Amino acid sequence: GLSLTKRTQYHYATEAAASHFSYASNPCFTSSQQHSGGIGGLRAEDVSPRLAFHYGVPADAALLAYDPLLHVLAVATRNGQIKLLGRDNTQALLQSPSPIPSKFMQFADGQGVLLSVNTQNQIEVWDIDTKRLCYLHPFEKQITAFTVLQKSFYIYAGDSFGNVSLFKLDLGQRCLVDLPYCIPFAESYGSTANGGNGVDVAFVSPQPLAESNRLLIIFRDGVMTLWDIKASRVVFVSGRTTQQQSHQEEKNVTSSCWACSKGSKVAIGYDSGDIYLWAIPDIFSAENSSSSSNPNLPLQRLNLGYKLDKVPIISLRWVPSDGKSGRLYINGFSEHAYLYQVLILNEESESRIVKMVLPITEACQGMEFVTGLSDPNKQRQTVLVLLLKSGQICLYDDSEIERYLLQSQSRSPPTLPSHSFVKQPYGDSGINVAKFYTSDRTATANEDYFSTLASKYPWLLSMKDKGQISASLSNIHKTRNLYITGHMDGTISFWDASCPLLLQIFMIKQQHEDNTSSRARITSLQFDMSSSILISGDQGGTVRVITFKKDSSDNILSILQGKQGDNYDARSIKLKGAVTSTSMISNSKHFAVGTEKGIVSVIKVDDATILYQKQLECRVSGGIASLQFELYSHNGYDKDLLIVGMEDSSICILEEETGKLLNANPVQTNRPTRALLLQTLELSPNEAPGSDNHDTALRESLLLLCTEDAIRLFSLSHAIQGMKKITNKKKLNGSCCFVSVIHGASSEIGIVLVFSNGKVETRSLPDLSLLKEASLRGFVHSKNLNSSSSITCSSDGEIILIKGEETYFFSTLCQDDIYRHVDNINMVYRKDHPLREESSYVVKSPKEKKKGLFGMIMKDTKGSKANESDANGNGQFIATTSEELASIFSSANFTPPSARRSSSLKDDENIELDIDDIDIEDNTQKQKGPHFAGLSKQKFSKGLQALRGKLKPRTEEKVNTENKKPEDEPSVRQVDQIKMKYGYATSDDSTSVPKMIGNKLQENIKKLEGINLRSADMAHGAQSFSSMAKELLRTTKNEKSSS
């Protein structure tokens, strides 16, 4: 069996009697709760490494998206993660299979679906209810533009060849469906295409008020075209001047947005720093309304200082403020400069520009406007969310920005808008060192209590000063997990970690003897629950012994109750060098402290006086990494030891009472490497049944030494004699930054290792075999002393990792119910829950769409009792256009070039001249009755062209076989071909193919006359229905007026 040594067993037996909490470890010294009897190593079935919860914003955030209906903000990272932030402090972390960044991200508003396009041009479909990737759609070309048509959920994807492809989002199956409708570059760009070479589609955007009818396509070179979806053609082209100038200036489009609510103006930003406003014909204007002005010249050029330094305009956003103006948010940055400005954009282009510069401290790489996620008491507050280059999120109240711009127009001096950053609620100072204690699983907890705490927690995007959130001391007995943190400003905080939203219980501010506050960084913590003693060391070399006053309560945490400063006594002592390690055992009268100077000090607990000090030599500059008191038994003789681990992995063994060095030759690794963990273990060989298990002669004491690159087990008896005997060694694959000993449910022992790249390994003892491996994607450990960074692990394998503005709660073993309220905090959206507020539109079910003509007339009659509301009108418009779009997008509007080539290469025997396949209509005059989509002029002309191509080979073949014709025959044949095209009889009266085709045309004309008669009948029927509806309307009005 495997166990901890005797001194450690006694220490944890005492502690377990005092509390139901288990001990927590630090990076340099680990002890763990110990049960009596032999203990074996962890097995693979005992281990289940997983991320229990992630709090905060990932450090490598790069992209934002927002769902205004569900109030969910998505933050994508550069490694394939997406963090979701919702109301009521809900947070969730999505992880795609491949750690690759996203370049486009957009919600299907109100549907619980998030679409993301990664750099490998794969479209991901995420279900944010189940938090899983439902569908991965590969795209053959490079996607350069991506837009979701809201309400109908069609998707436009522009590529590097200038084409626009379409997809349909199947909300039921959570997948994408390819549509045959497409917008080829040759059709949308125009005749001046660059020698047939495609130009990147920079942006595709449906035109406001005509989202289902028109699409604005902006190419990378500045050319923009307005595409009519139904007619499948270009109705407006602009920006040719920019395209011509780009050969000299190399001006490319980098951003764009609509700059008015009716879709008549668009703002475009270029990589040269230029910002142009262009006129676009809106849905209320005629197609040729722009003929009076030059479409190749912009309405306005905004000179805002970007062009001087050639700062590319990365993003543009327009927000309407009143009927005649709006605000344009402009973000530009490059490697050498950045500038973020907001200006008032009036309808009158010649008016004076009113602008402001936001004083951000670094470049901004993304922005979103978020409502209802900042303050539960301000549901309508709109917050401007800026994602900075470092990954930090900066928040501005948009109403303050608007107020500043309005005050700038008056004589009163404007006040600069205030801003705040998204920070962890651990105070203004970062965490440098921590301890973590978890209770046993049998401890009861009040679920309602933790739900109430979570509801009072400050929202992550709150603009208020979060500070520390205090838990009620009257409910201290309900605390299940205790987290103690030492901060960079010298404070020590106690936290209720029962749920991942940490609540502060108690805080100690370090003070000097003259009552001035100490700002020295806390570098070491040691807390003994049974004796209620906390030992801390800081960067300045001060060691404080804090003894809490006990009461009659059985709860160990009752020591934290009482008025600040009245429930504990503090004593301090000053040492040379920063404190790097502390160690004590329960009910002992002294403790040990190690410093960066290599000095070991043994200090009395009661009066904080030094018993002795010992200077130890280190091979390289560095101090004491680990200290451990140990009771060593050999040949029936017990000896108290103090085992010292140096930062260079040298092991020195001192006599506890006197400080005498027992091993003159310290046990050392072959080359200096940083030590992370030093732990004594006791290994018992497998004995035959009936033998004495307590014979200490059969037990071998081992030293577990974990460094950055390897794990070693040394013989303790040999180490005391100055000899190095390695019983087992395992070289690590990677740089390890944290190691801890952990215990399973049946007290099995193992070790958990955290690597600098986020890899987490669990290994068994004493064979050091790898049990399971996991990865914390996005976690990168660095030795930056100015950033908040700490790792700690409880004895049952619960790890809390803090890095910058994010916290990882990681579980190692197969145990549930560690944290309370996790499921609710992790649920940013539920399908079965209705929306918080009424949606601005209604997606109608298929059953509602299938109504007859009379039913639609009755509905229109009822709705005509008064002026129709905008909502009803919009709903009817959306339902109609959705049906039309489904019909338009379900059929190919252009034949692919490959299909045209393959059809022209068919053998003559496969060509069938079936004139019935051609849809024709009478073009002499327009029908006043109903319009039949199948009888289109375009289809008729295409049919005649196809027919002409099929007939040409036949006529030429016939000419070659008839050699007796005179020399002037070609002219006759040409006349016959012209007659044949239009269905007239030729000079040859024989039964030829052209004559048969002419007969077919005559038959189709007769068929068309029949169709005209039927259409006239239908028009007459529609008029009858209309008159009946009018009569019904008059009757209803008369009844209403009489009543």
UniProtKB/TrEMBL annotation:
This is Lethal giant larvae (Lgl)-like C-terminal domain-containing protein. GO terms for biological process: exocytosis; Golgi to plasma membrane transport; pollen sperm cell differentiation. One of its GO terms (cellular component) is cytoplasm. Belongs to the WD repeat L(2)GL family. The keyword Transmembrane does not apply. Residues 953-972 have a biased composition (Basic and acidic residues). Residues 700-817 form the Lethal giant larvae (Lgl)-like C-terminal domain. InterPro entries: Lgl_C_dom (IPR013905), WD40/YVTN_repeat-like_dom_sf (IPR015943), WD40_repeat_dom_sf (IPR036322), WD40_rpt (IPR001680). Keywords: Exocytosis. It holds the Pfam family Lgl_C. GO terms for molecular function: GTPase activator activity; myosin II binding; syntaxin binding. SUPFAM superfamilies: WD40 repeat-like. Residues 948-972 are annotated as: Disordered.
